[in-house]
Known about the structure:
Elements: H1 2-22, E1 24-27, E2 31-34, E3 39-41, E4 45-51, E5 59-64, E6 70-74, E7 92-98, E8 108-116, E9 122-125, E10 128-133, E11 136-143, E12 146-154, E13 168-172, E14 178-181, E15 185-190, E16 193-198, E17 208-209, E18 215-219, E19 222-226, E20 248-249, E21 285-289, E22 303-307, E23 312-321, E24 324-329, E25 337-339, E26 346-351, E27 357-361, H2 375-383, E28 394-400, H3 416-422, H4 428-441, H5 447-455, H6 462-472, H7 478-487, H8 491-501, H9 510-522, H10 526-535, H11 537-542, H12 544-557, H13 562-571, H14 576-582, H15 587-602, H16 618-634, H17 652-655, H18 658-667, E29 669-670, E30 673-675, E31 678-680, E32 685-686, H19 697-710, H20 720-728, H21 739-744
Antiparallel strand pairs: 1-2, 3-25, 4-28, 5-6, 6-7, 7-8, 9-10, 10-11, 11-12, 13-14, 15-16, 17-18, 18-19, 19-20, 21-22, 22-23, 23-24, 23-25, 26-27, 27-28, 29-32, 30-31
Helix pairs in contact: 3-4, 4-6, 5-6, 6-8, 7-8, 8-10, 9-12, 10-13, 13-15, 16-19, 18-20, 19-20
Amino acid sequence: MAKTKRFTLAIASLLVLSMVLVGFQQIAGTRLIFSLDDYRVEDGFELKLIASESLLKAPVSLDFDNKGRMWVVEMIGYMPNLEGIGEEEPTGRISILEDRNKDGVADHAKVFLDKLVLPRALAHVYGGLLYVDGPKLWFVEIINDKPGKKTLVDPVYAEGGNVEHSSNGLMMNIDNWIYNANYNFRYQLRNGKWLKEVTSDRGQWGITKDNFGRLYYNNNSTTLQGDFVLPNKVIRNKYFKPVNAEQKRLTSNRVYPLHQTSVNRGYQAGVLDEKGLLKEVTAACGPLVYRGGAFPEGYDQNVFVCVPEANLIKRTILNVKDIQTTASQATEGNEFIASTDEGFRPVNLFNGPDGAIYVVDMHRGIIQHKAYISQYLTEQLASKKLDTLQNAGRILKITSKANKLNPIPDFTKATASQLVALLSSPNGWLRDRAQQVLIQKKDRMVVNQLVTLAKAENALSTAIHALYVLDGLNALTFETLSAVVKQSKQPETIAHALGLLERFATPQRVAAMKTMSTELLARNNETIDLYLSMALNPWLKLSDATFLPTLSEIEKKYATQKVVQEALTSGLDGKEEIYLASMNPSDLLKGNLTLTLNNRQKKQLNSIYVAEVNEVDNRTKGLKLFRSICATCHGADGKGIQDLAPPLKGSEYIDGSMKRLASIILHGVSGPIHVNGKLYQLNNEMPALLNNKDISDQDIVDIIQYTQNALAKEGKRISAADVKKMRERKPVGNGVLTEKQLLEDDFEK
């Protein structure tokens, strides 16, 4: 008996020791211990671990269902090793995480979908699940937590491009449209049919919105970007691309890590400071406008940004003044969350139904894709053994120490009246979900309540939510919207109402719209004037003589305001010549309209109206060509294969003349040959690509650029014109280069 007791105590001691070494561990499947020793969190906040790799692997995104449960996207196949071999295997999945004992920590997980290829986004919409599998966008019905009928929404959603630059996001906005990062289309299910409509191309990884419905996003090297106007308002004119109203950089890219981190271009001058710390973001992603209503005053609509390469999360403060937005670092020199744990890889942030911020921590060593990873970073990761940190992952929760979290309602049991009440919740997630569930219920008994809300004042955009519930219920009328415009004192509500009024443009309503426009101009409000200038387009087509003077008045009032002038250019789509001839526009608008007419004559569309899929960048093309042509003999890692081909990594032919390298690829090489002082007596010869009609000069450039990025000590460049010259310089003899020719020929001539 005593022996058994001692054995039990010994096992318990080992368990405690393992928890100390690891930092966190699941105990009895219910509670997690998480050490904050490696994390510095802004005063007044707590960081809690609510799920880890015992329940999930490589999480990249999540959403909550109508019961408040987390559904997590697990992109397990991403960069499974330093060579990225095997990433297209169907190892991804979507799992449902539950907190069954209600202690705030997930204690159960079940797979909803598996065998997915690099899944990267999901959204609970229309009572089902929208998700990405490989290049395709699917919608699946949910029946008792199991997948039901599947509908292919878009077969080319993530076609082309590198996984780092493939479409993602899937965020339902207040206007009932689903927007994406890194894709120029938006989606909506209306009257049983999926709609796909052109929108502006935004960001790289992650997308978010404010209470008004403006969109925010970023890319690797830009902390935060955003639109000054609501989506799709300033792109109506297909032959004019706005440059001042959308995709604006909002803040500095400065970053303040706690320690030296391994970043892709750390060897380049200016990337690191004198202490070896990263100076500016190089992998920013997953922005979030906080709308949870459970943080202290001053935090509402702050933007939080993931910086996984520096193991931190930034907090920036939005400053919206009239129709332009800026942002600034919340606390200069400090980050909201910063860690010395180099495995901390926050890649996405989400508002939760309880008011907390949920952090998706991929928690892995490699976050740079093979197409872009430099030899410098490869060596850094290997030396720190960060390439061995695989198949981990965490979901963390940020909460305020001072404020309580919101109770999470069960939307599956909520009545229509209860849902209407939630449109006034301080928690934006609850307002958003109430809006969508009300539309799904199709209960028109609440229409009068919604109309009353739409006319009322509320700082939380409740009136706007009400308008779009009415929109989703097909319950909007010209009379209702006119009353909202007339009675509302909130410019933001009026801006949305003006956009919704466009569909009601008929000859019989021209006089009423003219009266409304005159009354709105008298308010002398910049936001109202801006959205009026864009919303008059369908009315202008009915009677340009009635509305051109209105637009001219707006133009003269904001003659030097570039955003307004771009809005006018969008609103004047199809009426440019008439305006130029009759309204004596200012130089700014005249320039825009003249450019538009020239583009129309040349049939040069805004690129968003041309692109259907993401373009594959040159380095990704180079990687694919290298793997299909070169890796067979030289190895996927470029280290060569015994008795088949010498190594490329560290080779003087990779680190030397680019024209020599191009010539080798074009004309081939016959042995024997020395590489790094070692003689390779190979019986075969490297085949030439010269006569391969499927390989262009640019393809050769792409292969070389990939090798320079992945294998060279210091990358060099070459142009397609250079390759063309080397194509024409055929070696004497049998047309295949020998070592003697490689050494004697001056390839730089």
